[in-house]
């Protein structure tokens, strides 16, 4: 007789936990966190309406890890320091491609955004943290985010290549 009561109790308990398992906290917080760490829409990253003065590319690397060349765009200065935007290469990870765009004002990293990133929960949570740490460190010398190690490593590779390409 007791087993007849236990079965519905177990089924209803599991059914009540399903929404918790499917809940993605980053779906509602992404915009607020993104604004806090310097991620801004493409339209807001353009600081000058003047055309780019220089655009350079390097040949694509056919080896594992990168599939697209870094792209560098230098804009005429709107303030005392020149604003330069550099796209890092696409880095392949087991979860998907990672590519970043870095904006420099003079020699300082002033903005970073993902152009490509895996569509996974850990990556969505790690992206703002990686960007925040980059802006704080001013370099690619940052720690990986636990739970998103592959994305973190791809991010650092693309970021470092963009920083290296900025000097050219």
From TrEMBL:
From which domain of life does this come?
Bacteria
Name a Pfam family for this protein. Answer: FMN_bind
**What segment(s) does the record annotate as region Disordered?**
41-79
Select a single GO molecular function from the record's annotations and give it. FMN binding
Q: Which residues form the FMN-binding domain?
A: 93-166
**GO cellular component terms, semicolon-separated:** membrane
Query: Mind telling me which InterPro entries this protein's record contains?
Result: FMN-bd
Listed name of the protein:
Uncharacterized protein with FMN-binding domain
Species name: Umezawaea tangerina
